[in-house]
DNA sequence: AGCGAGCCCTGCGCGC
DNA sequence: TGCGCGCAGGGCTCGC
């Protein structure tokens, strides 16, 4: 489950179950799902068993469960393209693509299993040490502690983070010498945004994906940030975007935001603003969706990087 | 600094 | 039916 709203749906679903829960058992079914845990399967299983989870925390698309007792560390999760964290009662049947299972003893729910299910195995779990945040503010949403997993330390705050610095974002965005969508997908500049919400926010802000960041006015950059927040918040309110059963909450339920998308996945259908058919174009080995009328290509600039005449 | 390519994977829908 | 192809929400590393 990819982008910020979908990951936040998962975090919020886990929180009441995992807070204060003891890890009674760990089973790694697929060792490749520990790509972020180089110490290997046995180390992961042994070190986690018996530990107590304090909370469920998220920054951007990264999720972690800080552990209370013992070393200052957390269970880190990145869902990649297809990862899910599902809650299962112990007698429930095994999920087809179950990769890792954490059996918990939850104060609120009793015995319950967190199943890490991941079709493509791009996601990963790990035990990661917690390090202090650079700015002294909480590491993510869901825990006041000013700590982040070491593997998340280079990830920027996301636009829904109360400590997100709007003016600093505008400054850094405009200092880039690249296209605006490429910048939005760079998780070290701003986190939580992926292909869907980048396309949706750019449509709302009437920007072409290749619009040079250096030529964005501060006002345009702030507008874009406001549209990003709007689309992320609306998607979150709808439970995230689900095109199929792959993007679901901890109970396996889909979100409804796909019904409100304006460009993503709508190639050939009319722009909801002007009626022009939406186009899908290759971009960064993926696809970009835009309205050819509302989001005109940037005009070529003379000098370095300009297309040959 | 930035970027393209390549890599990590499975599975679905489509056209032939 | 079966097969090959293109496509899918991400991120990391490398060489230029």
Textual characterization of the structure:
- With 309 residues, the protein is an alpha+beta fold.
- It has two domains: 4-152, Alpha-Beta Barrel (N-terminal domain of MutM-like DNA repair proteins); 166-290, Helicase, Ruva Protein, domain 3.
- Helices cover 22% and strands 22% of the residues.
- It has helices spanning 4-18, 41-48, 166-175, 180-185, 195-204, 218-237; strands spanning 22-28, 57-59, 62-66, 73-78, 83-88, 98-106, 110-118, 124-132, 147-149, 279-283, 286-290.
- The chain has a five-stranded antiparallel β-sheet with strand order 2-3-4-8-9. A four-stranded antiparallel β-sheet has the order 1-6-7-5. A two-stranded antiparallel ribbon has the order 10-11.
- Helix 1 (4-18) packs across helix 6 (218-237), helix 3 (166-175) crosses helix 6 and helix 5 (195-204) crosses helix 6 (218-237).
- It is globular, with a radius of gyration of 21 Å.
């Amino acid at each position: 489950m990819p982008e910020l709203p979908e990951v936040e749906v998962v975090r919020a679903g886990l929180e009441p179950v995992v807070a204060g829960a003891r890890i009674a058992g760990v089973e790694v079914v697929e060792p490749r799902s520990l790509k972020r845990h180089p110490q290997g399967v046995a180390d992961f299983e042994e070190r986690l068993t018996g530990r107590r989870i304090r909370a469920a925390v998220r920054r951007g698309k990264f999720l972690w469960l800080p552990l209370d007792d013992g070393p200052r560390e957390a269970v880190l999760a990145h869902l990649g393209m297809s990862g899910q964290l599902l809650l299962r009662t112990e007698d429930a049947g095994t999920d087809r693509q179950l990769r890792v299972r954490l059996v918990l003893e939850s104060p609120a729910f009793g015995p319950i299993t967190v199943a890490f299910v991941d079709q493509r195995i791009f996601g990963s779990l790990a035990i990661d040490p917690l390090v202090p945040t650079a700015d002294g503010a909480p590491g993510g949403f869901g825990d006041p502690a000013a700590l982040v997993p070491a593997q998340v330390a280079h990830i920027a705050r996301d636009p829904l983070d109360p400590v997100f610095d709007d003016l600093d974002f505008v400054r850094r965005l405009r200092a880039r010498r690249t296209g605006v969508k490429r910048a939005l997908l760079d998780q070290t500049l701003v986190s939580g945004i992926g292909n869907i919400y980048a396309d949706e926010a750019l449509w709302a802000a009437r920007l072409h994906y290749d619009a040079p960041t250096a030529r964005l006015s501060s006002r345009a950059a702030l507008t874009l940030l406001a549209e990003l927040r709007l689309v992320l918040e609306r998607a979150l309110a709808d439970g995230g975007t689900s095109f199929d059963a792959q993007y679901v909450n901890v109970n396996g339920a889909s979100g409804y935001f796909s019904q409100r998308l304006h460009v993503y996945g709508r190639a050939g259908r009319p722009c909801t603003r002007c009626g022009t058919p939406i186009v899908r174009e290759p971009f960064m080995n993926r696809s970009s969706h835009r309205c050819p009328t509302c989001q005109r290509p940037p005009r070529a600039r003379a000098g370095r990087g300009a297309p040959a005449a």
